[in-house]
Amino acid sequence: MTEQIVERTIRLMMVAFFATVTSACKTETPAPPVVRAAAHLDKVPADQIVARVDGEPILVGALRRRIEQTKESKQQALDALIDFELLVAEARRRGFDRSPAVLEQERRSAGRLLAENFGKTFTKASIPDAMIERAYQLNRSHYVHPEMAEVAHVLARAGSGDGSDYHQVARELAQAIADYAKAKPLTLDEFRKLPEVFAVRAQAARVPLASEALTTPRRGLTARDFADACFAMTKPGQTSGVVKTKFGYHVIYLVRRSPARNDSLAQVAAEIRGRLFEQARRFEFLKMVDKLKTAHGVELVAAGAAEPTR
What we know:
This protein is α+β, with helices and mostly antiparallel strands. Helices cover 55% and strands 15% of the residues. It has helices spanning 2-25, 60-70, 74-93, 100-121, 129-138, 140-143, 164-183, 188-192, 194-197, 199-205, 224-232, 265-296, 302-305, and strands at 49-53, 56-59, 144-145, 148-157, 209-217, 243-245, 248-258, 261-262. Strands 5-4-7-6 form a four-stranded antiparallel sheet, with helices on both faces. A two-stranded antiparallel sheet has the order 1-2.
């Protein structure tokens, strides 16, 4: 009997300790694994109630969750729930439930529950159709486009105003880069660093090197010879030979080929909803909060709203 009293005393001390720490620290840490019944639960079926303390029911679900969380025996878990309700009942009798600290915590909990409830009830289907259509129109080029090639390329610059000797040097530099790229497979990062690898030779030849990434269709965006070289490659990581355009001499690295798309809004609406979900949920929540400002009224008091001084 004495051991049972000692064990119960320790348990009560721990419950009181966690309750004190939670209140004092004012963190968002949840209370011990106890689910208290609200007043409207007095009509809960009798088979869902395992005990009552001061009329407050302790539910089967609360007992089950306590056992799952603490791995206690059924009797230990029930005793802990009863002990906690006893502390709550006595705190209420002494008026602690009306203290500013408790009331503030209740206010915060109520606001947090409202936010959590919004998060649970707002689904992908809740996203307004107008938002889905707007996202589709803004990103239409992603859903409707011809076949595309995503590439990186290194350019040895040489324009129409440069002499034939200069062009010869630039072409030889580009050829050296192409040979290097074909000698062993390169990652995309390694390919992009080729201007650094050939920096000394480029400086000696006074030929500027540049590296760029772009996505091109077969026609309409880049020079014909450049686009043809891009689409002549089929495997990611493949590199081209030297390709001449009006800008100079290119060596091209294929990142990927993307097939043509011609998807309507109806075809991709579900995809867009998935992509927008988190952003839309935050947006709609803020809209709800803005409506609450009108419904409940917000008044800024000049003295209190002034910037605090030290």
